[in-house]
Amino acid sequence: MTKKQKAREIAAILDELFPQTPVPLHHSDPYTLLIAVLLSAQCTDERVNQVTPHLFQRANNPFDMAKLPVEEIKEIIKPCGLSPRKSAAISELSKILVEKYNGQVPKSFEALEALPGVGHKTASVVMSQAFGVPAFPVDTHIHRLAARWGLSSGKSVEQTEADLKKLFPKKMWNKLHLQIIFFGRKYCPARGHQPEKCPICSRFGVSNASK
């Protein structure tokens, strides 16, 4: 079986198990999604969703966020970790959005990745989920599963992203990256994985020894 054939079968399994893919981070527009994704670095989505209501009650747009003291932002987002760095980034990027983009989140990878605290993965999530632009955000979980399933031998998330983009049609990317995340959480965790009970690993003979 080629990687392309395996990818097709995996996509079919994911479609059957997760036909709907709601964005797990609560948000109301591109700006609140951008902030939520930035906060999710080295933090669970559940924790982010507990923190953002308080933050967005104080400021849910770049105009108001730019006026908040960085210390206040830092205190609110402290449960998400890395609060000194994240609070500074949120404050600075909000000021840039106001000054350079009239308070709008830009619709390009280049402009997004130029913002403080916004890397390629964050930009990819915003482009795909806020603007519908085909993108394949690869986090550590997708990187791990792609290796476990034999779809990529990439040593970095960048290489894994490139490999997955070659295997799956562009029209599937935005939904697929969420399906893989949901699948990993429910059936294919990093620890305590039971390959024989996993709908994908059992299908392709993946064992815990593999990855």
Kindly describe this structure.
It is a single chain. The chain is mostly helical and 211 residues long. It has two domains: 3-21 and 136-197, Helix-hairpin-Helix base-excision DNA repair enzymes (C-terminal) (Endonuclease Iii, domain 2), CATH 1.10.1670.10; 30-129, Endonuclease III, domain 1 (Orthogonal Bundle). It is built from eleven helices and no strands. Helix 2 runs antiparallel to helix 8 (120-129). The mean pLDDT is 96.
Q: How many helical elements?
A: 11
Number of strands: 0
Summing up helix and strand content along with how strands pair, one would put the structural category as mainly alpha
Task: Provide the β-strand percentage band.
Answer: under 5%
The structural domain count equals 2
Poorly predicted regions = none
What is the CATH superfamily classification of the largest domain?
Hypothetical protein, domain 2
Average of the residue pLDDT scores: 96
Please identify, by name, the CATH architecture of the largest domain.
Answer: Orthogonal Bundle
Which H/E pattern describes the elements? HHHHHHHHHHH
